[in-house]
């Protein structure tokens, strides 16, 4: 108690020792921190540093710790393994200073010990992959190497402990790795200790002397040491000389020396070696196994302890001499790493472990040093016996650089030391080298499998298939931890091979054919193709060619397989239009008219999903027929327009008064439709899923007038090229035009509902002669008007024909034209694609596509309205239509509507059907034409 301050010192129970001496071991970091701060009494003692490392078995006793107890003659470490405390599996160095003998012991515990190995296995997670586990173990091995390098740099003598009597040749590889690492980090260590108060030789060589390495083996019971019995004939010297243990020690010395000399770990000049072995002294010691008689062992221990206690009361000599006198007087046997002592009869066999070690320590403490150089001109090696304080300063600096990495001043050096650890890979990671060699041999086989049967240019699908085959071949031959790394390299190599001039252009044409060119760039506006550019600049080409007709159908020309919608639906027809139908009268569809020099395409944020667009269109079409019928409840014979559900508005408007004005009122577009955007344009084609108020930059449709109605001759058909024989005749569509007089106008209005219409297809014509349900003698006379309609199909070879039904082609063998009415094609959904009647010799079927609609409007009071809607794919597919709907075709005219060659949305093109796809999903909806009478008011 000092003043009001009470100091309480707590000593852990494991540090309290029985007897006069109270000794314990601490970590090297704690020792260095304590000794640099405290002023201890032994700071000026000249010390010898002994390091102990090696491997231990799975027995309960700790072999290396027991050696320290034997050498220090104190119970420093527990002889039995303690319960696992959950510590880290990293390497650790524990230090114990024996002040009596002036020896500092350093004990290295690493993953080579059973206790640390158990902790390392527990720290590994269950689901860790093989490569990660390998990195974990190699990390622990590299850490062990750094701790060993530290011990080889600060110790005078090193003890390598092994759990059996067989030398482990893996130490040869370990020592070569440590020697290579030491040569790499030697300049860094010199920079770290340049200010320490040691000799110049120590600063240059970074160690007090070339350490001497001694080997301690434990006999595992296969070899027994027999006592002095009758065979010795009373001659104990002969038994010592020829004991199996001594012969084993000599054999191990010769074996170890030859191995290290062959691998050049040991050379003639000891100053250049990682360690040395004595030339004229024993450097291998074999600890014999314990006696199998437990009673005799206990009696021997009791006799030994009693003798030691008697000698303690009489002896006054301390230090090493005290131990030598005790050994000579008591004739004790050497200690065992497992049981502590061992008696063989009552005589000492060979020498003890402490005597074996002390002959080397004595050379250090007497400052004689080690003269282990051999050869003709041996060079003396440097040697220095440091004081305790000087050694602590050097050891602390090296600890900061090699192990702890906590000092800011030495952080840069520590980082450089960590960067030099790659030199260990070639020595320690033998399994990794084997795996790398094996994987490197498997790579050429995998590359050959990838490149087998490959075309010069190929697509991503072919690349992935070949890569999968290459990986299968690689996995059959590659093994080890480098498997994943070289598999990734195989991925990269195959990708480089593919992208280096073998990658096929991935662009698909609008007919679903790949571009045959290798990967290339498209030329910009005004830019010319450049084949020498890398990648080359050229247009897409699938090498597919077809024959198509112009807008009016009078001229045909070959065309390349299109890759963009403008080339398919606009550019090709514009080129042919200059040669054929440029001067024909036409109805222009509205397109985008920019008001800014740089218009932008509209985004598809407000665009509805194609499925929703298609569903809403179908729902409207399903509701329209019922609505039309409800407007005309008393009509016994519906007209074609009413049966199709499209002429209700026009008939109702004509009933109320001025039909033209009312019809314009009902068809008046909304504000968004009447004022399309002049800043944003529609990037694709017009369809039911497009946002309102947007127009494309070009129209994919064309409506051209071929001439007056008389320009079509129903007896000869269309006079255009490439029609199949007898298939160029348009289908007649007869429409009733009722002419009424003033006197029966009121009567007829009350009966007919005030409208004049044509009869529905396949219905009885009302008011016709011979018909039933007429009005008797007061019936009116009806006139007929004939409209000609033709749905023209064209295949890829330019063969053309008119269809008389969804599955029928017009066939006229003689004069007079076709007799098939047009009601069949107008009442049904016409297919967009049908099998071509002129199939080739190949197995792949050819399809003919609906490309034109011919309409001949007679010179009669008729209003024929055109409203095409195309569904070019299975749901959800939007309905495509022109930029203007409900197009009025004037009387006495011959019109041809050209459908788009390809259909595309913002999400991509609508490809033609494949062989196994049903064609009924590709269709032109019914109701494409409707007609109303246009009789002026009286």
TrEMBL record:
Source superkingdom: Eukaryota
Tell me the keywords, alphabetical order. Nonsense-mediated mRNA decay
What biological-process terms (Gene Ontology) are attached? nuclear-transcribed mRNA catabolic process, nonsense-mediated decay
- Which Pfam family is one of this chain's hits? Smg8_Smg9
Region (Disordered) location: 226-247, 526-558, 592-675, 747-778
Q: Where is the composition biased (Polar residues)?
A: 539-551
Q: Keyword check for Cell membrane, yes or no.
A: no
Q: What InterPro entries would the database entry show?
A: SMG8-like
Q: Could you say which protein family the record assigns here? A: Belongs to the SMG8 family.
Q: Which PANTHER family match?
A: AMPLIFIED IN BREAST CANCER 2-RELATED, NONSENSE-MEDIATED MRNA DECAY FACTOR SMG8
- Free-text function comment from the UniProt entry: Involved in nonsense-mediated decay (NMD) of mRNAs containing premature stop codons.
Q: What protein am I looking at? A: Nonsense-mediated mRNA decay factor SMG8
């Amino acid at each position: 108690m000092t003043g009001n301050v009470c100091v309480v010192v707590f000593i852990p129970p494991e540090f309290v020792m029985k007897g006069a001496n109270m000794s314990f071991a601490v970590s090297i970091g704690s020792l260095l921190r304590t000794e640099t701060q405290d002023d201890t009494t032994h700071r000026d003692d000249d010390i010898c540093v002994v390091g102990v490392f090696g491997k231990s078995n799975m027995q309960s006793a700790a072999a290396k710790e027991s050696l320290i107890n034997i050498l220090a003659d104190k119970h420093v470490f527990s002889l039995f393994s303690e319960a696992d405390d959950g510590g880290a599996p990293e390497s650790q160095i524990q230090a114990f200073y024996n002040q009596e003998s002036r020896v500092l012991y350093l004990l290295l515990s690493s993953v080579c010990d059973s206790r640390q190995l158990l902790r390392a296995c527990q720290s590994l997670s269950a689901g860790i992959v093989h490569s990660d586990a390998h990195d974990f173990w190699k990390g622990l091995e590299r850490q062990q190497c750094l701790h060993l390098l530290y011990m080889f740099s600060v110790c005078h003598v090193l003890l390598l402990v092994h759990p059996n009597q067989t030398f482990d040749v893996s130490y040869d590889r370990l020592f070569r790795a440590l020697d290579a690492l030491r040569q790499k980090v030697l300049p860094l260590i010199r920079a770290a200790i340049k200010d320490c108060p040691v000799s110049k030789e120590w600063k240059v060589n970074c160690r007090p002397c070339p350490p001497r390495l001694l080997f301690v083996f434990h006999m595992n019971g296969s070899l027994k040491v027999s006592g002095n019995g009758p065979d010795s004939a009373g001659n104990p010297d002969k038994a010592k000389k020829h004991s199996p243990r001594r012969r084993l020690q000599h054999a191990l010395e010769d074996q170890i020396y030859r191995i290290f000399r062959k691998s050049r770990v040991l050379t003639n000049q000891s100053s250049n070696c990682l360690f040395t072995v004595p030339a004229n002294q024993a450097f291998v010691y074999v600890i014999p196994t314990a006696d199998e008689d437990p009673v005799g062992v206990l009696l021997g221990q009791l006799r030994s302890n009693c003798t030691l206690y008697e000698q303690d009361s009489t002896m006054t000599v301390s230090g090493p001499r005290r131990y030598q006198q005790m050994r000579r007087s008591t004739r004790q046997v050497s200690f065992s790493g497992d049981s502590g002592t061992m008696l063989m009869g009552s005589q000492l066999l060979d020498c003890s472990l402490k005597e074996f070690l002390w002959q080397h320590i004595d050379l250090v403490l007497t400052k004689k040093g080690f003269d282990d150089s051999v050869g003709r001109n041996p060079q003396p090696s440097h040697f220095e016996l440091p004081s305790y304080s000087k050694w602590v300063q050097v050891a602390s600096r090296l600890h900061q650089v090699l192990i702890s990495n906590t000092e800011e001043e030495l952080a840069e050096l520590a980082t450089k030391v960590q960067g030099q650890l790659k030199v260990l890979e070639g020595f320690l990671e033998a399994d990794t080298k084997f795996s790398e060699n094996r994987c490197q041999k498997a790579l050429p086989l995998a590359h050959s499998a990838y490149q087998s049967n490959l075309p010069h240019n190929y697509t991503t699908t072919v690349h992935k298939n070949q890569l999968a085959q290459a990986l299968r071949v690689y996995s059959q031959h590659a093994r080890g931890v480098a498997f994943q790394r070289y598999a990734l390299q195989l991925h990269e190599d195959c990708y480089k091979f593919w992208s280096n001039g073998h990658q096929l252009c991935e662009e698909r044409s609008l007919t679903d054919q790949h571009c045959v060119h290798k990967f290339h760039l498209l030329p910009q506006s005004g830019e010319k193709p450049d084949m020498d550019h890398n990648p080359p600049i050229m247009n897409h080409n699938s090498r597919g060619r077809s024959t198509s007709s112009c807008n009016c159908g009078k001229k045909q020309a070959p065309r390349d397989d299109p890759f963009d919608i403008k080339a398919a639906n606009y550019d090709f027809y514009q080129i042919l239009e200059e040669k054929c139908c440029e001067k024909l009268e036409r109805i222009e569809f509205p397109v985008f008219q920019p008001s800014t020099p740089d218009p932008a395409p509209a985004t598809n944020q407000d665009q509805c999903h194609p499925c929703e667009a298609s569903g809403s269109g179908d729902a409207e079409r399903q509701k329209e027929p019922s609505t039309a019928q409800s407007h005309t409840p008393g009509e016994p014979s519906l007209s074609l327009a009413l049966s199709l559900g499209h002429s209700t508005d026009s008939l109702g408007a004509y009933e109320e008064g001025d039909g033209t004005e009312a019809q314009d009122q009902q068809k008046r577009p909304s504000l968004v439709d009447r004022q399309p955007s002049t800043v944003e344009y529609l990037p694709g084609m017009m369809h039911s899923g497009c946002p309102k108020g947007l127009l494309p930059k070009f129209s994919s449709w064309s409506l051209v007038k071929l001439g007056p109605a008389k320009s079509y001759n129903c007896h000869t058909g269309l006079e255009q090229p490439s029609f199949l024989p007898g298939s160029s005749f348009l289908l007649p569509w007869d429409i009733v035009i009722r002419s009424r007089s003033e006197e029966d106008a009121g009567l007829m209005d009350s009966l007919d509902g005030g409208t004049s219409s044509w009869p529905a297809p396949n219905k009885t014509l009302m008011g016709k002669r011979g018909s039933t349900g007429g009005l008797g003698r007061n019936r009116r006379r009806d006139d007929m008007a004939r409209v000609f309609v033709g749905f023209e199909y064209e295949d890829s070879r330019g063969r053309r024909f008119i269809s008389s039904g969804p599955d029928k082609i017009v066939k006229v063998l003689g004069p007079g034209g076709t007799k098939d009415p047009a009601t069949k094609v107008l009442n049904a959904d016409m297919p967009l694609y049908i099998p071509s009647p002129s199939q080739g010799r190949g197995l792949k079927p050819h399809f003919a596509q609906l490309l034109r609609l011919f309409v001949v409007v007679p010179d009669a009071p008729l209003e024929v309205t055109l409203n095409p809607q195309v569904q070019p794919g299975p749901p959800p597919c939007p309905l495509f239509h022109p930029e203007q709907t409900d197009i009025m075709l004037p009387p006495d005219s011959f019109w041809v509507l050209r459908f788009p060659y390809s259909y595309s949305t913002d999400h991509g093109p609508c490809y033609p059907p494949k062989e196994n796809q049903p064609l009924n999903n590709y269709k032109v909806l019914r109701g494409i034409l409707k007609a109303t009478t246009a009789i002026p008011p009286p």
